[in-house]
């Protein structure tokens, strides 16, 4: 499957028909993909979808069975990982426990046998970028999870790569720290101006951070687009369900296709609305979420529809109780016909 980058831009990463199997089991199946320079691009999917394998192929830690990976137009087939203009930040951060923070950041530069003065200068600048300048003499075990992440990022960026590859970089952080780190990573990409390619299984994480997303399943790319495109216009049931909650109506579209309506697009009323497509049902649970309430309506045929209502909408209803007869409807523009 081919997924192009932004129109008119030469891709910094071009993946052409790449396939990879392990023990005869396909992990990546003939993927073609363009990633534009300066994008924050996310590979997202469930465990086993092939996203980490694809990232490792870009990094050079795995060799494709077939196909090519080009960076700035140059085929990377003969280049080992250390000779590619990329750096990778691992989920575990992979910091050397016996080295200080400064020595961890300096490691790649020392492997390249850079001059001592240059190494000291670049390490200091990288640590200062992440407000870790005073932590250079500490060991990794003396740092918090968020601080270890910053050191790993400093080490990844100190070599000035064209592309930063991130494998589930926020998975080890707690919820509040993860949300803060999301904002920091987006701001960092804007500040340094390089291409970020990140793997995550977390839909919300991808939606909040990426300029574009590739949704993967069973080693293939299902759909590529902006977060808004994937949410508002999914092409398949899988994509519709993966990004948010979807009300799906089988045999309701052209050619007996499936129609999707997001819960926030569903209108709820106690009286029959003046709409020919309104459906009647019985109100079940009403789940309060703070900034919204989700109403579960069982239609006459037994199907359950979710309607997500704002506090103002709920206030207009007054009292709602399980068992109330209600009606659901939506604007024609809210209904999306899925192609698969």
How would you characterize this protein structure?
β2 and β3 form a beta hairpin. The protein has helices at 51-59, 101-111, 116-129, 145-157, 175-192, 203-209, 227-232, 237-242, 311-317; strands at 2-3, 11-22, 25-36, 40-44, 66-71, 74-75, 86-89, 163-167, 195-200, 212-217, 220-225, 247-249, 258-261, 267-269, 279-288, 293-299, 304-309, 325-329, 336-338. It has 9 helices and 19 strands. With 340 residues, the chain is an alpha/beta fold. It has 2 domains: 13-239, Rossmann fold; 245-338, OB fold (Dihydrolipoamide Acetyltransferase, E2P). α2 packs across α3 and α2 runs parallel beside α4 (145-157). Helix content is 27%, strand content 31%.
SSE inventory with pairings:
Layout: E1 2-3, E2 11-22, E3 25-36, E4 40-44, H1 51-59, E5 66-71, E6 74-75, E7 86-89, H2 101-111, H3 116-129, H4 145-157, E8 163-167, H5 175-192, E9 195-200, H6 203-209, E10 212-217, E11 220-225, H7 227-232, H8 237-242, E12 247-249, E13 258-261, E14 267-269, E15 279-288, E16 293-299, E17 304-309, H9 311-317, E18 325-329, E19 336-338
Parallel strand pairs: 1-3, 4-9, 4-10, 7-8, 8-9
Antiparallel strand pairs: 2-3, 2-5, 5-6, 10-11, 12-13, 13-19, 14-18, 15-16, 15-18, 16-17
């Amino acid at each position: 499957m081919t997924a192009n980058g932004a129109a008119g831009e030469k891709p910094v990463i071009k993946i052409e028909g790449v396939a990879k199997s392990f023990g005869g089991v396909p992990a990546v199946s003939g993927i073609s993909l363009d990633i534009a320079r300066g994008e924050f691009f996310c590979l997202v999917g469930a465990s086993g979808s092939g996203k980490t394998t694809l990232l490792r192929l870009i990094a050079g830690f795995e060799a494709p069975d077939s196909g090519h990976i080009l960076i700035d137009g140059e085929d990377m087939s003969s280049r080992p990982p250390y000779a590619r203009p990329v750096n990778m930040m691992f989920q575990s951060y992979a910091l050397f426990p016996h080295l200080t923070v400064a020595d961890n950041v300096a490691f790649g530069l020392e492997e390249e046998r850079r001059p001592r003065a240059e190494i000291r200068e670049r390490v200091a600048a990288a640590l200062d970028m992440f407000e870790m300048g005073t932590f250079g003499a500490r060991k990794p075990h003396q740092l918090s999870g968020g601080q270890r992440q910053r050191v790993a990022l400093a080490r990844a960026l100190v070599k000035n790569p064209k592309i930063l590859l991130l494998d589930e970089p926020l998975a080890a952080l707690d919820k509040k720290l993860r949300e803060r780190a999301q904002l920091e990573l987006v701001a960092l990409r804007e500040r340094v101006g390089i291409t970020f390619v990140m793997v995550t299984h977390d839909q919300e994480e991808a939606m909040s951070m990426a300029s574009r997303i590739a949704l993967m399943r069973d080693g293939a790319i299902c759909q590529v687009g902006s977060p808004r495109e994937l949410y508002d216009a999914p092409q398949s049931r899988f994509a519709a369900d993966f990004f948010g909650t979807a009300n799906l109506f089988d045999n309701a579209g052209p050619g007996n296709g499936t129609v999707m309506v997001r819960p926030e697009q569903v209108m709820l009323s106690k009286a029959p609305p003046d709409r020919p497509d309104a459906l009647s049902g019985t109100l079940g649970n009403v789940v309060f979420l703070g900034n919204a309430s989700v109403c579960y309506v069982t239609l006459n045929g037994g199907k359950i529809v979710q309607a997500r209502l704002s506090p103002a909408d709920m206030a207009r209803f007054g009292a709602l109780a399980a068992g109330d007869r209600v009606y659901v409807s939506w604007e024609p523009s809210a209904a999306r016909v899925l192609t698969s």
